[in-house]
Amino acid sequence: ARVEARGTPSADQGSKNQWSSMFVFGDGFVDNGNLPKTDTWRQWSYPYGSYLNSRGSATPVPTGRLSNYWIQSDFIARILGLSEAPPSYRLTPHLSCDPSGMTFAFGGAGVYEVPDKKVPTLATQVNAFTRLLNAGVISKQQLQSSVALVSISGSDYMTGANVENAFLSSFDDIDSYIGNVTTEIAKNVGKLHRLGVRKVLVNNMHPIGCTPLRTSSNNYTTCNLLANYAATVHNINIEHLMGNKNNAHILDLYTAFTDIVNHAPGEGSERSNNFKRKLTPCCEASTELGYCGQVSPSGERLYDLCKNPDKKFYWDETYPTTAGWEAVTEALEEPLREFLDRDYVP
């Protein structure tokens, strides 16, 4: 369940409060192995996990992460002083919990069920955490030095979510629906606090209109206005619901992503210059209905792979590369450390 540390620096010094445990909830931005190893789930197959290590090995090591190596939760874990994200729930031995915590997130999850995904919702993940806590598998003592990370990144706003009008088809449709999604996120954050988690980190919505899934129709040249409007409404709601909570911190993915992939000329972050054709994925399907990692019955690749993923922000049609996540985390780090260093408010 653990990823070999390959050619990366040792874990950073954690905050002064010495957070030693992390519990991760949500979706594919932070899932490190909960989806089963089947043909249905591509993150267990090449080219996922195809990061080249410093020793020159080209052997891919798929770990269930939706990227070429590390994802958001790994970089957040290192800020806490851990070596990587805590082990996945599915790959953790029964009735046990690693001292570093546990990852409950599943790729494709949201606050509503998505029938074609068949993955647990955010509330179901929090309920699994609650059962382990009530059973004593996760101790109250462990919670006292714990941080939770909650990532809901857009599955509820895609075709297939089990609610009416889930697909974003017009500006008039989406405001009340987004309100329901963000209220559900806030409800689960409140539950984590009541259960004893000291601090909770909550992703706001990244600019979903800039993902290659949304920009492929215009040859990866411009972001989709309606989808980014939805992300903005989502983020206003999240700020309203949680912006004043003492022990919760909103991770501003929208700004961090935008400053890299969709900023005005002459603006943006310094790290933005590291990426080329920022809306284009490194791993791109050869056909309109294909996907990264798809192969024909004869074993022929049905996708194109860029030569240097470190120069691409997006790995596939939805998820960033490890280099992309590193750049985003750099933008989030200073306010995050300030939050972690503040004393817990009972």
Automatic annotation (TrEMBL):
The UniProt record lists the keyword Lipid metabolism: yes
Pfam entry (one): Lipase_GDSL
Transmembrane segments: none
GO molecular function: hydrolase activity, acting on ester bonds
Keywords: Hydrolase, Lipid metabolism
InterPro entries: GDSL (IPR001087), SGNH_hydro_sf (IPR036514)
A GO BP annotation: lipid metabolic process
Similarity comment: family membership: Belongs to the 'GDSL' lipolytic enzyme family.
Name of the protein: GDSL esterase/lipase
